[in-house]
Amino acid sequence: MLTPNSIWNSFLNSGKKHLVLTGSHRVGKTTRFQAFCAYLKRQVETLPGITTYVVPGESVMLRDNNTNVETVIGKYDADLKIMKPISEGFAVLGCPALKNMLESGGEWITIDELGFLESNEISFQDAIRKVFDSKRVLAVLR
What we know:
seven-stranded mixed sheet, 30% strand, globular, alpha/beta, 7 strands, single chain, 4 helices
């Protein structure tokens, strides 16, 4: 099995700009991501980013890692048994956080994780594209 260190070194030697981790549910994407963040934090002064996490049976939250401000971007609909996107969360926190990160002096931005809730959030998608165009990105894609 490849260690996080060997994968990170292979990535750095590849000359690629971004490292995007993908995979099935519960295979360890976020665990690997956190290991790579630890390597990055030793090399850079700041490591801005955003994190999403699930509150089981309730919601999906988005956190700006610089400010620790959080908002709801998904709400669980118990009748339909699905998570419904909350556009206001992307507009109020997601897009502004990414814009602030673009204006920061750092080379890297972290995103843990992008998933289906973002699929209809055009402004947020545009902000993500700008991040990928302008910075190096370490991200998890569900």
